[in-house]
Amino acid sequence: MLSDIGLSRNSVVVGAIDFDENKTSYSQIGNDLNYVSVVSPGTYTFSEQSPVKDRSGKIIDYSYQASGTSFSALL
Questions:
Q1: What does the domain layout of the chain look like in residue ranges?
Q2: Minimum mean pLDDT among 7-11, 20-24, 31-35, 67-71: which range?
Q3: Cβ-contact 26, 10 below 8 angstroms
Q4: What is the C-alpha to C-alpha distance for residues 52 and 54, in angstroms, rounded to an integer?
Q5: How far is CA 48 from CA 57, 63, 68, in A?
Q6: Helix/strand/coil (H, E, C) string of the chain?
Q7: CB-based contact 36:13 (threshold 8 Å)
Q8: How many CA atoms does the CB half-sphere of 13 hold within 13 Å?
Q9: Contact, 63 vs 43, CB < 8 A?
Q10: Which residues pair with 23 in a beta bridge?
């Protein structure tokens, strides 16, 4: 949680949910002073759009997964 000094009256507190719309283990719900303002998915899997082949011609699946409340922040 952010300290009182880190929050302003106009702060937007972001939480993360998983694919089933449950709160993620790394997302908090707030305390007596501040509550989550908005939630959105916090885990993403990024992958190549087209197959990548190695030198022998074997297709390599490139995918990356990232998670955290930073991925839930509004853009």
A1: 4-72
A2: 31-35
A3: no
A4: 7
A5: 16, 7, 21
A6: CCCHHHCCCCCCCEEEECCCCCECCCCCCECCCCECCEEEECEEEEECCCCEECCCCCEECCEEEEECHHHHCCC
A7: yes
A8: 18
A9: no
A10: 17
Residue identified by tokens 């990232």 is 66
What are phi and psi for residue 27, nearest 5 degrees?
Answer: -105, 135
Residue 31 has a CB neighbour count (10 Å cut-off) of 10
Strand 38-41 relative to strand 14-17, pairing:
parallel
Cα–Cα distance for residue pair 21/23, rounded to 1 Å: 7
Query: Which pair of structure tokens corresponds to residue 70?
Result: 């930073």
Q: What does the pLDDT look like over 18-60, one tens digit per residue?
A: 888 888 888 876 666 566 777 788 887 777 666 778 889 888 7
- Residue whose structure tokens are 């082949």: 53
